[in-house]
Amino acid sequence: MKVQIISSSIRDGRDTHGIALFLKNWMDKNTDAETNIIDLKERNFPLFHERLSFMKEKHEGAVKFSKEIDEADAVIIVSPEYNGSFPASLKNVIDLLYAEWQKKPIGLAIASSGDMAGAQVTKDLQFLLYKIGAHVAKARFHVAHVGTAFKEDGSTENEEFYNKHAKSLWENLEWFIKANQ
Ligand SMILES: Cc1cc2nc3c(=O)[nH]c(=O)nc-3n(C[C@H](O)[C@H](O)[C@H](O)COP(=O)(O)O)c2cc1C
Predict the structure, then answer these.
(1) What is the number of helices (H) and of strands (E) in the chain?
(2) Ligand 1 residue neighbourhood (C-beta within 6 Å)
(3) Superkingdom of the source (predicted)?
(4) Which of 19, 50, 99, 164 has the most CB atoms at less than 10 Å from its CB?
């Protein structure tokens, strides 16, 4: 079973990448899935100008991304809240693909520096993913005060709390994976 974690923030000094590392560690310890992080900061995608299937000269990074999403049994999206929504870096890559997202089980891990833990992002992101044809898990992994919640290496002082939420996200995602088989 393959799971891709998309780490969305490309911001200098970003804090949410620690969540992607935490979830990958949790997946490696607690599941049989082969889990990989797609780090959008590292990938450095150009600004969207056309969907991959319509590109005359296919962008190498987009082709790789297409294969990774297509072959994944599930995708976990780690997104910060920027002005009540998700960052442009994430929309930039979701729009690149279409067929690859169909019925794809997707788990959301959303964070903000405030008390609301990125709750406002959910509505926009769930609708976007529903509209494109993915299956978004109801269980979500929310992180408040993200600047202090996770260290750069993905460790946290609230391991018990976040382990519980990672388990609940994964159990819900697994349901969708099995439903797809
Ligand atoms: C452009 C921008 C807009 C933001 N808007 C919000 C917001 O609406 N609500 C909130 O609670 N935090 C907001 N924040 C704080 C971010 O959620 C926080 O800085 C988080 O660490 C961003 O993720 P990142 O560090 O991985 O980029 C904003 C941050 C940025 C950079």
Answers:
(1) 7, 5
(2) 9, 11, 14-16, 80-84, 112-114, 116, 146-147
(3) Bacteria
(4) 19
Please name the residue whose Cα sits nearest to atom 22 of ligand 1. Answer: 80
Ligand 1 pocket test target in 14, 22, 37, 82 with most atoms within 8 Å of CB: 82
**CA-nearest residue, atom 20 of ligand 1:** 112
Domains detected in the chain: 2-180 (3.40.50.360)
Other beta carbons within 10 Å of 30: 12
pLDDT in tens, the chain (181 residues): 999 999 999 999 999 999 999 999 999 999 999 999 999 999 999 999 999 999 999 999 999 999 999 999 999 999 999 999 999 999 999 999 999 999 999 999 999 999 999 999 999 999 999 999 999 999 999 999 999 999 999 999 999 999 999 999 999 999 999 998 8
- Cβ within 8 Å of residue 89, ≥6 positions away: 8, 9, 10, 40, 41, 45
Angle at which helices 17-30 and 159-180 cross, to 10°: 70
Ligand 1 center to 166 CA (angstroms)? 22
